[in-house]
Design a protein that fits this description.
By secondary structure, the chain is of the alpha/beta class. About 40% of the residues lie in helices and about 20% in strands. The chain has 9 helices and 10 strands. It has a 5-stranded parallel β-sheet with strand order 2-1-3-4-5, with helices on both faces. A 5-stranded mixed β-sheet has the order 7-6-8-10-9, with helices on both faces. The protein is elongated.
Length: about 260
């Protein structure tokens, strides 16, 4: 809870900086934040509450001296660009979003409205920014993923469950910057075989779980992408490793179920 509150408080601060750098507001105009959410209202309610709380701590009260427009993609990445365009048409002062597809959609929709991302994959590799020190263009934010971090998470998994030898990794291939490169680099040194399984939609999970059983994976780790976030409960409850599951490990970018 504290981590999420801190994350969105920082995002709020980044928003304020973005607004200050934008064109001067018209007298009497109330700034408007556009939030582009790759997930659903129910899935992101806790984060939305943290976001609003962070703004209130900075004396920005929704409906009083600031407006918030939220658009939910419900895990459907093909809707992100359309929703981003909707926010642009509303002439919001800044767009706050998360995940690499969310940022890319906002970037495609506008080159002038400031974009603040509250968490994305490797922003340089994904082409979101030119470099971390000087992102350039109209984009800034927080990155929660890097090849070295994914390798470290795999290392922690191995330390926690030293007997595992095969790990299945669920990812959406249409989402760049998922951390696959970091996992592939770290796995051999840890004595682990990595089984990558693609899930582009909800209907792909059944076949992915069948492959987990067929190949004998002893753990499942997932990329932080919308389709997986939307189906997180399903993954935990219907995973073929659920029986005898020792624990669920949650990190900033992924969840892991271990048999």
């Amino acid at each position: 809870m504290k981590a999420k509150s801190l994350l969105f408080t920082i995002t709020s601060i980044l928003f304020l900086v973005a607004v200050q750098l934008a064109e001067p507001q018209q007298p009497g105009k109330i700034p408007r934040i556009g939030v582009l959410s790759p997930g659903s209202a129910s899935l992101t309610s806790e984060r939305s509450d943290s976001f609003r709380r962070g703004l209130r701590e900075l004396a920005y009260i929704e409906g009083k001296n600031i407006f918030i427009e939220i658009r939910y993609a419900e895990g459907k990445q093909d809707r992100l660009y359309e929703l981003a365009l909707d926010l642009v048409k509303l002439k919001v002062d800044v767009i706050v979003t998360a995940t690499t597809p969310g940022v890319l959609a906002a970037k495609k929709a506008t080159s002038t409205i400031p974009i603040v991302f509250a968490g994305a994959g490797d922003p340089v590799t994904s082409g979101l920014v030119s470099n971390l020190a000087h992102p350039g263009e109209n984009i800034t934010g927080l990155s929660i993923l890097g090849p070295e971090l994914e390798g470290k998470r795999l290392e922690l998994l191995k330390e926690t469950f030293p007997k595992i030898t095969r790990v299945a990794y669920l990812l959406d291939p249409t989402n760049t910057g998922t951390g696959l490169a970091g996992l592939q680099a770290a796995a051999p040194a840890l004595g682990l075989q990595l089984q990558t399984l693609e899930v582009r939609s909800a209907k792909d999970f059944d076949s992915a779980f069948e492959a987990v059983l067929r190949k004998g994976a002893q753990a499942i780790t997932v990329a932080a992408v919308p389709i997986i976030s939307i189906n997180q409960k399903r993954i935990i409850e219907t995973s073929p490793l659920k029986t005898g599951c020792q624990r669920s490990i949650h990190t900033a970018s992924s969840s892991t179920v271990v048999a």
